[in-house]
């Protein structure tokens, strides 16, 4: 059986105030064309269909168009909700859509209920595990201490229990939206550390033939059977070196997996340039950046006059300007942001306690601080989920 594995569409998102709806529509065209040309048996969408819980109307219309076009091809779709989606909103009408071959899995309670597809070699059970926020699903999965690893392990127990009751020849696919250990993050993914350590071990998915992951925006292989497709478009300059693609996955009669990448259309390349302003304006090595979306980092010790206007004359698609003067972060002239660079909220809070009290927090106080941060993030996740 042949799958197209994609994720993290983030419909409705912009890139440094540049609208991307046209580029996202071009990706949908590409996805439909690839499904047709490769004779894909199904499309797997591993979450973050939208960029926010209440997406703009144009994004909803593009989503609707994508499903209609795939259904018209007769290509089933298995889709889960991600941490950016409102699971309840995305799941509206799932029962009716299933009749058209669109299998939405947005309810954690359905973790053990697969969409069953079939080819000439038999059945393939496709289990959809939507993004599982530990604080919100701990009771459903009966975990004592909520964490990403605990709730995913409990969900996978349900998958394996259902699979064990099926014929031994049944092949299996799991869609999940999570941060799996070994993956490389970029700047454009929303933090999911609430509920404990975000990363879960790849071994939690043992026992299934293929795991289609979403959340991380770079295409990457955790194991031969566990892969991220990455986002089809770049959503931060940290993705400048990414090759955007979807996975074309072939699942053999014996469960063997082979996969290759199908490149996605690129609306405009990204470039990150760094140096002193006068050098950037004349450096011949930067000619390729003149037609790219550009992030420029200026290292001049003193802020130069009108840097944005001067850079834009050479780089008309300059979108982001960063000032990082060449000086020691310990320099009294360094900004507050420079001094805090790379530190977590917990570390900053602990430093503050040490500063005002003359001594850092003890283990009990550290635990209280961590619980406070988790509570705040859980409340934010609850609001964004639309519940």
From TrEMBL:
Which SUPFAM superfamilies does the record associate with it? Answer: Metallo-dependent phosphatases
As one GO molecular function, the record gives: exonuclease activity
Q: InterPro entries from the entry?
A: Calcineurin-like_PHP (IPR004843), DNA_Repair-Maintenance_Comp (IPR050535), Metallo-depent_PP-like (IPR029052), Mre11_N (IPR041796), SbcD (IPR004593), SbcD_C (IPR026843)
The alphabetical list of record keywords is: DNA recombination, DNA replication, Endonuclease, Exonuclease, Hydrolase, Nuclease
Query: Out of the domains of life, which is the source?
Result: Bacteria
Question: Per its UniProt record, what Pfam families does this chain match?
Answer: Metallophos (PF00149), SbcD_C (PF12320)
Residue stretches making up the Calcineurin-like phosphoesterase domain: 1-218
Keyword Secreted in the entry? The reply is no
Keyword Nuclease attached: yes
Q: Nuclease SbcCD subunit D C-terminal domain: which residues?
A: 267-353
Check the record and name the CDD domains matching this protein. Answer: MPP_Mre11_N
Q: What does this protein do?
A: SbcCD cleaves DNA hairpin structures. These structures can inhibit DNA replication and are intermediates in certain DNA recombination reactions. The complex acts as a 3'->5' double strand exonuclease that can open hairpins. It also has a 5' single-strand endonuclease activity.
Subunit and partners: Heterodimer of SbcC and SbcD.
Q: What family does the entry list?
A: Belongs to the SbcD family.
Stated name of the protein: Nuclease SbcCD subunit D
This protein's species is: Streptomyces zingiberis
């Amino acid at each position: 059986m042949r799958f197209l594995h994609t994720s993290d569409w983030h419909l409705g998102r912009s890139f440094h105030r540049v609208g991307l709806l046209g580029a996202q529509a071009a990706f949908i065209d590409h996805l439909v064309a690839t499904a047709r040309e490769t004779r894909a048996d199904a499309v797997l969408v591993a979450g973050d269909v939208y960029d926010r819980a209440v997406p703009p109307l144009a994004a909803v219309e593009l989503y609707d168009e994508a499903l209609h076009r795939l259904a018209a091809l007769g290509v089933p779709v298995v889709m889960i909700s991600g941490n950016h989606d409102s699971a309840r909103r995305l799941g509206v009408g799932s029962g009716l859509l299933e009749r058209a071959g669109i299998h939405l899995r947005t309810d954690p309670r359905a973790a053990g209920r697969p969409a069953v597809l079939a080819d000439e070699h038999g059945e393939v059970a496709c289990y959809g595990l939507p993004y599982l926020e530990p604080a919100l699903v701990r009771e459903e999965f009966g975990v004592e201490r909520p964490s990403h690893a605990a709730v995913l392990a409990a969900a996978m127990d349900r998958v394996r229990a259902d699979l064990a009751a099926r014929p031994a020849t049944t092949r299996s696919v799991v869609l999940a939206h999570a941060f799996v250990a070994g993956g490389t993050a970029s700047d454009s993914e929303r933090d999911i550390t609430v509920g404990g350590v975000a990363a879960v071990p790849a071994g939690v998915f043992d026992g299934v033939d293929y795991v289609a992951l979403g959340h991380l925006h770079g295409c990457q292989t955790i194991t031969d059977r566990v892969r991220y497709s990455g986002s089809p478009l770049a959503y931060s300059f940290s993705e400048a070196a990414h090759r955007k693609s979807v996975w074309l996955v072939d699942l053999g009669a014996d469960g063997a997996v082979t996969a290759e990448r199908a490149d996605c259309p690129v609306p405009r390349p990204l470039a990150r340039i760094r140096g002193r302003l006068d050098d950037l304006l004349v450096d011949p090595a930067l000619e390729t950046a003149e037609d790219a979306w550009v992030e420029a980092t200026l290292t001049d010790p003193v802020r130069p006059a009108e840097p944005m206007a001067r850079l834009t004359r050479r780089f008309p698609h300059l979108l982001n300007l960063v000032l990082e003067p060449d000086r020691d972060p310990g320099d009294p002239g360094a900004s507050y942001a420079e001094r805090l660079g790379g530190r977590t909220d917990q570390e900053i809070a602990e430093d503050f306690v040490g500063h005002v009290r003359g001594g850092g927090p003890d283990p009990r106080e550290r635990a209280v601080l961590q619980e406070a941060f988790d509570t705040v993030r859980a409340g934010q996740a609850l609001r964004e989920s639309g519940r």
